[in-house]
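notes to self, project folder thing:

trying the whole complex as one job this time. last attempt i did each chain seperately and stitching them together was a nightmare. two parts in total, labels are on each line so i dont mix them up again. if this works i'll redo the older ones the same way
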Amino acid sequence: MRITNNMLINNMMLSLSNNLSRTQKYQYQLASGKKIRLPSDDPIVASKSLKLRTDVSEIQQFKRNTDDAISWMDITESTMRQMTEIVHRMREITNQAANGTNTAEDLEKIKAEAEQLRNQLIDLGNATYAGRYIFSGFKTDKPLLDASGNFNIDISNSEQIKFEIGIGDDINVNVTGSDLFNGGTDAASGEKSKLVDVFDRVIVAMGSDDKSQLGSLLADIDEQIDNLLRVESGLGARMNRVELTANRLDDDLVSFTNLMSKNEDVDMAEAIMNLQNEANVYMASLATSAKVIQPSLVDFLK
Amino acid sequence: MNNTTYMGMEIALRGLYSAQRGMANVAHNVDNVNTPGYSRQVLDQRAARPLLVANSAGMLGMGSDVVSVDRMRDTFLDEKYWSEAQYLGEWEVKAFIIEEMQTIYNEPSDNGYTKIISDFYSALQTLSTDPSSLSVRAMVKEKGIAIAKYFNSVASHFDHLQEDLNNMVHAKVEEINSLADQIKELNLQIYNYEVMGNKANDLRDRRDYLVDKLSRLINCNAYEVETGLKLPNGEPEKRFVVTISGKALVDHADVVHLKCESRKQKLNFEDIENLFEVSWADGNKISIKSGELKAYLDMRDGNDGLVGLNGEKSPNCRGIPYYQRKMNEFVQVFARTFNEGIIDVDGDGVLDKINGHVDGYTITSQPGDPPCGIRFFTMLGDDGKPLSSADFEAMLLDYAAKNGITDDPSTDYDERILAGYSLLTARNFSISFDIEDDPSNNIAASDKPGEPGNNENLKTLMGMRHNPYMFMEGMPEDFIKTLISSMGVDGQQYVQSYEIQKAILNQVDNRRQSVSGVSLNEEMVNLVKYQQIYGAAAKMIQTYSEVLDILINRLGV
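result (full assembly):
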């Protein structure tokens, strides 16, 4: 085949431009840390990367949701622990008042304490988390109980506030006032809370020093303690689940971020090596081109 | 007749002339080493007509003669080049345009669609953990706006790109017309030279070079046809013809231009107004099969072969209208699902009605109130401001009525609303005025009135994100993922085809260069050769001169 000067130049230009475009690719990879710049560079990596980004962002959101759930439940739990203490203390002083050895003055003191406990209990029933009443079900803008221990709102056990902590995985974060203050039955607005009612009856019995009545009320208090324990253990179990989920989400986040990085991040060592390789080829082709293109017979005719 | 005294000198003189012509030819070739389209020229040098010697001693050589100057050209390779160049032009342009389209979507990145839709759902999730929080509600509103703006911006980028491509179509048609005119001029010049029996080498090179350029723009064939007549020198008369899909663009001295006319009826619903329709200037329809012009038309009009508004099929290519249509489909389904809760929940292919944003309750609703009826997403009105939910509803129902779906018992409310959603496009997608105006109240998180802590409606809305039947392609993310990967695959194919075509064309061009290119070595060898011959011929003259000196001066007559 006849080889002409322009053929050499064309071929050289083509090889140089191919080489430069590869160099540019590796240079981009190193500069951005990503394998691809456009979906057309590798459609599979691109589509995987879209999926993984969605997954990672969802996991992050679920993690935030579990954090919110945990703090809501922490508040609920500590409020309920105080309630349990109050009810236990009520049982103690009721027991004390049911004894025959109290002076009138003692009884007065006991009664005053019982009233304090009752008010504290109502206050706890209206506990808030970030401005929201935690026991009011969906009506988080309204307090659960009024000063006399009547329900301020309609409240039903079905008013469960649920947070999503996984795809299709809900967790009920709240304890409804009806479950806690009404022995587990739904209540309408104006109805008397069963728990406060027991306290009220104790206080009345203390006022009239009705020892037998106080004795029989102990059973009612026990019943309320059992109810509290039931709700508390339910909440505990749910908190356990949230914490397990939170741990799993932490693991998921690490492994999905890892997957995402494996999918779209560039292997630096490889990219540097490739770039170096291309640079060598480029230098070599420049050097040979310079040698081949320049001289012709023209240079030797003197 | 016997030898004449000066015959030898005459022969030597011819040698001088031939060598001079040869050197001039070398100079011409060397000068044009880098002229695009130039093919090297060689001398057709023959022995001059010999002299018949009377004494039957045979023929007497009369030196050399340059009969003609020919260009070295292989027309087979030219035709090969022209038939391959059209695909190079097509793939190069397509690869370039789809790159631009991919940057419009800006995926994969941290600020593309995926990020925006994830942010929106994250905001909803955050709201579901605190449904009465005003700051989170404001955030949901902002993220909703971000989605709408994203689609508006992608759609308007596509519009601009379509306009650019339309201008390119016009520019390319102008370029084709101008090339056709130039070829016609050259045809006349070449004909005028050659009718006298000359060879218009350089003009022919120029003409072939113009066809090289034309062949990148559009599928074309170029060839010479014999007219059947004879030129004065006995050669058959030839005329040069350039055709596009069988119809002549240039036929010797006649040119039929192409023209661009604004379409009166849009081809695709998604198109911008006044796109150019390319046709022959004489009114005939043109069939464009490849080349840059085809690439611009395909990407401008390509709607995956869908039959357009004017009854014609759009190019079988995924161009701008295709992606606009998909984006429109996305916003329609997304808004309809989110607003109305009309969605296929069980995968039976029939739309079901679950709770949507309209079925929720606002934060200030009182027990006994009806559902809010507020649509989260609406569209931009004529004044560019978001429509309120009520105005939007009226528009949807009005649209349904205009399309024959009226308020009678056979078509329920949902069916009419559903029909109206085809008004929504990526260009006019927006959040509703109600949400923009008062997100604190109007985002309907609750599924019961008077329950500010109730997040049940939000949870239904968020659940739609994971509904695999929302689109034919699956969930919202799957939809866009499919769109972007199909664009990626197309782009990859265009780039690969372009690379392949580049290699093919380079190979053909190299073969052409091998035949037609100027080799400096060769020219230098010729130069030395002609120089030597010139010297030798001059020497001959000197020798004859000496011989004559002997004859005339020394014989002492």
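what i see at first glance: The longest helix of chain B spans residues 134-194.
need to look closer tmrw
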